[in-house]
Amino acid sequence: MRPIWIIPVTVITLLIGCAGNEPSETPSGPELANGAFDAVVDGRTIHYEVHGTGPVVLALTNSWGLSLDGLRGLFKPLEAKLTVVTFDPRGMGGSSPVTEDADMSLAAVREDFDALRRHLGLDRVNAIGWSNGATNLILLASERPDTISSAIFVHGAASFGPADMAAFAQHYPELAQHYVAFQQEMADPSLTDDERTSRMREVWLGEYFPAITADPETAAPRIQAAFADAQLSWPHAQFATRESPAFDYTDRLGAITARSLVIAGAHDSLPPERVRIIADGIPDAEFELFASSGHFAPLEEPDAFAASVFAFLGVE
């Protein structure tokens, strides 16, 4: 099973701190008006929203099929002191439709992130990514170091392989069994992609997401509220599974020059020491462990999460 920190999926594939430097001046860039907008780049549309006031933070969306509404639901606590920009991946929300499989790739998300950065007139930007977005941020920040001022990695992983899958299945045996049944259900050829997406939404929001929090009973309604308006996508999730069955990006970490904050949850399905690999590999990165969180620190400890990001970016 592919756990959520990489790509929450419906297919079971293998089941049978470092002390940080002081905040530098945070570039605010141009003042951005709040609202919903479309950027037309190279003939395609990137739909994005801007909310909040203060320095700009551009969120790297998730490649497994999550509209901007989901990330806004997660990062809304940051809007009190930051201008948060989120965008729809290709094939979702108001962005251009998918015309080929590559439009659902990790690379496509990074390409649209950079296109939107340029569209907004930001020479360098503060970037944030959650889960699969945090993992993709490793690639973005190492490929385009001159464009990323600060990078915030929330519940990401630098590598993933068979041992991680096996550990997840051992720690969550009941959940893993449920996903085997779910996989069989989704294999029904009579189902449409819309029907699969609808069923996937029920399972992820109602079962999978709460299960990987510190307190599922408390977290469940927060997850439902945060993702209430978000679109999910079965085709994107399936492509994400095929694209990255296993990976190791640890050799990219040393190329990241942005000031970096790495956030882990003490009760996450991914052990904190696996997340800390990101911080250990990035020069002078800061690592913060949220003691009362699983995979959703922005929802499980919203005030502490926001305070941590504000302090890192030097905003009061």
Architecture overview:
- There is one protein chain.
- 39% of the residues lie in helices and 17% in strands.
- It has 316 residues and is α/β, with parallel strands linked by helices.
Distinctive features:
two-stranded antiparallel ribbon, 8-stranded mixed beta sheet, single chain
Shape: globular
Question: Strand content of the residues, in percent?
Answer: 15-25%
Helix content: 25-40%
How would a crystallographer describe the biggest sheet?
Answer: 8 strands, mixed
What is the CATH first-level class name?
Answer: Alpha Beta
Can you tell me the CATH architecture? 3-Layer(aba) Sandwich
What's the number of domains? 1
Number of strands: 10
Cα end-to-end separation: 42 Å
Taking all Cα atoms into account, the compactness measure Rg is 18 Å
Which parts are unreliable, with pLDDT below 50 for 5 consecutive residues or more?
4-28
Major β-sheet strand ordering: 1-2-4-3-5-6-9-10
Number of helical segments? 11
Mean pLDDT, as a whole number? Answer: 91
CATH superfamily: Alpha/Beta hydrolase fold, catalytic domain
* Secondary-structure element series: EEEHEHEHEEHHHHHEEHEHH
Summarize the structure.
With 316 residues, this protein is of the alpha/beta class. It is 39% helix and 17% strand. It has a single domain, classed as Rossmann fold.
